[in-house]
Structures are given as structure tokens and as C-alpha cells.
Amino acid sequence: MNEHDEAEWTKNEEQTEDHEETNTSLEEQTSNPLDDTEEIPMLEETKIHEKEKVTPTNTNTAENTHAYEITENPGYLEGKEQDHQDIVSLIETAEAELADLRMRKDLIESDFPQLLESYDRFILNEEPISTIGKTSLIEYFTYELLKPLNDIGLERSNSAYDTWKTRHFSINYTLNGQNELVFSFVLPTIDQRYQVESMSLLNVSPETMEINVQDDRVLSLIRHWSVDRVFSAGQITIFNHKLNQLLAHARTLGFTVNQTLLDNTKPLRLNLQSEFELTNEVLDDIFIVAMKNPSYDMEKINETTYQVRLDKGQSLTITTNEKDQTVLSISSGDYPRSVIDFFINYEFLVPLMVRKS
């Protein structure tokens, strides 16, 4: 290598070293921009000194705490409470209805002794019961009493909840002030131009287990047949027979049936006082019939007493008392008869008891 080439190589070497130093300096400046070669100015209030603890400023006060408390919504709570009350009410109603259904189920499955016990609880002692339950109880109870009428078509009426009907008459029932069952009967008239009001005939007391027959209504039956001619003899004969079956059935259920003009289960021994005065016209009519029938006889015992002897050992004694009232003593001998049976068989004696006013 000559001197000229050596000098050239030395110059290039120096330029390469200078270039590398320059690159190194640029890299150091790029990687440490905040070195002590130059600091970025900073506002005094934003400077954070070394090792200084940063603590957030506590701005909570009693006033701020109250402002951010969780509060309730009165309107919503009122609605919620109302919903609660409604649900409780619905539950109570549903429970009451369910209890009533269970009670009615028990009633419909009950025999007469159980119905009698229920009658005592809910009717006599007035334990709470729904209207439907009470109506059902009375219906089932009356059916047990009216069972002997099944052979003449006993069934519920389609027009009234408190009425039974048969082929020959209908029966209405109701409770009176003493919680007794009152049975009223309606017979169809043979002439549809005339109607007869229902007859309140039987008073049934489940409390005392007694049945009373309103005998004045029995006499009205005789009047409607013999005087008014709105009933036939066959009608009241069937009616009397079925009523006696009812009374006999009631005795088997434990009821006591007080003495009645309807009773045809034993011989008749009865004194009746008529509301009509004894007249010569009535006596003459009886005498004429008695003389025409060889099985009858009529005798004057004294000035105030007459005796009419009938067939089968039966008789009727007619007496006028000091008040000019007519008293009848009826004997059917050994023949079981009711008053209705007696007068139907001896219609000529009816004017002694009932007649046209």
C-alpha cells in the first residue's frame, strides 16, 4: 500500500466511527426523552413530589349522606298491600266455599239420623251455614219425611224450590217462627174454574219430635167435597190414605203424632163440637135416610139427645147443650176409621158439621 492509499483508508475509518457515534447518541435520546438533557416544564399545582401520599378529598357530609339514602315508594307499597289483602280475602272466600261444599257433600250422603243432627246444628242452634246449604238440608230432610209418596210419583217441582209434587196433589214446605216445618197441600179441583188455596195441614217439630195436624183444615176438606163440590170423594179418600202413610212413616222415624181427625189406624171414639145450630130440617133429613136404609136407625133419647145407629156397629149421638151448640159423639165400633172416612161413608150426616152458610 502506498502512502496515498493508506491516507485514504485512515480517513474512511474515521468517518465510519463518527457515523456510529452519531447513531448511538440518537438512540439514547429516543429511548430516554426525559433524561436530564431536557425537562418538560410542569405547573406548580400539578406536581407530584416523590414519596408524597395521595389521599382523596373526603367530601361526604351528613347532608350528602341523607340525600343519597334509599327510600320506599308509598304508592307502590299501598298497591302491594291492597293486592295482599285481596289475595287473603280470596283465600278466605275459597276456603269458606270449600268448607261449604264439604258440608253439602256430607249432607247429601246423610241418612235421616244424620240429617236430624244437622237440622239441630244449623236450624235450631243456628250454626253458620250458607243459603244453599240450608236449602239443601231442608230439602233432604223433607224428602225423608215424604218417602211414602214415591209410589204416586213424588218429585221436585220445576217451578219452586220448596215444593214437591205427586200425581194427586202437591206439597209446599216452609219454616215457621219456631223453626218447625209446616207442610201445606194443594189438591187439583175437579172443576178448573175454581181454585182452592193451599191447606197448612202438618206442623213437624224436629226439636220435640212431634207432629201436629191442624184438624180445622181436615173439616175444610169435607166442606170442599160435600158442600162446594170442588173435590171428589175419591180425591180426598186417596189424600187421607197417603197422609196416614206419612204419619205412620214419621212414627218409625221417632216422631210422636198427636191425635188427629185424619188417623185411620184405630177405631174412632171422638167428640166433636159443631159450629152450627141443630135444626129440625137437618134432623128430618137424617131421619128420612135412616128410615130408608134397613141397616140404619134413628132414635130420640130425650129432648136434647138423638142417636143414629149405623151398620158395622157404628153410631152417632147428637146432643144439644145449654148454649144450643151441637155436640157429636162418633163411634166406629171395631172398624178403624178417620173422620174423613166416616163422613164419606155417611154423607147424610155431614150437615151436622159443615154446611153452606
CATH architectural label of the domain at 266-357: 2-Layer Sandwich
| Strand arrangement in the largest pleated sheet | 1-2-3-4-5-6-7
Q: So what's the CATH class of the domain at 266-357?
A: Alpha Beta
Counting DSSP E segments of at least 2 residues, the number of strands comes to 12
Question: What form results from the Cα inertia axes?
Answer: elongated
Q: How helical, in percent, are the residues?
A: 40-55%
Number of helices: 9
Order of H and E elements: HHHHHEEEEEEHHEEHEEEEH
Beta strand % = 15-25%
Would you tell me which CATH topology of the domain at 266-357 applies? Double Stranded RNA Binding Domain
- Helix/strand class: alpha+beta
Quick structural summary:
Residues 1-14 have a biased composition (Basic and acidic residues). With 357 residues, the chain is an alpha+beta fold.
